[in-house]
Amino acid sequence: MLTIIRCLLVIGLLLATAPLRADTLAGRVVAVTDGDTITIRDGGRNRHRIWLAGIDAPKSKQPFAQASKQHLSQLVSDKDVSIEWSSRDRYGRIIGKVTLAAPDCPGCMPTLDAGLAQLEAGMAWWDRDYRRQQSLEDQGRYEYAEFDARMKRIGLWQDPAPVPPAEWRKRETPSWITRWRDPSPSTGVANPSRKAQGTMARVMSTPGSTLATTSRN
Question: What is residue 40's three-state secondary structure?
Answer without folding.
Answer: strand
